[in-house]
Amino acid sequence: MEYHVSKPSAPVSNSAQRRWANQNEAAEYLGVSTRTVRQMIADGRLRGYRNGPRMIRLDLNEIDASMTPFGGAA
């Protein structure tokens, strides 16, 4: 039996690589509750990705990108 593994055409840089987290991990990362994370997904502040009926993941890079500075240093 012969197996062929296809290689990606262009290497993926570490900065573009997705960092997946479940809702509990995302809540801990942000320092909020899981209920807040679910509400942020529902109102569009965060984007959730579903794989199947129950598994939801968030991209930590997208969470970082959604942060906006405010105050004197902004």
From TrEMBL:
It comes from Gordonia westfalica. This is Helix-turn-helix domain-containing protein. Residues 24-65 form the Helix-turn-helix domain. NCBIfam families: excise. The lineage of its organism: Bacteria, Bacillati, Actinomycetota, Actinomycetes, Mycobacteriales.
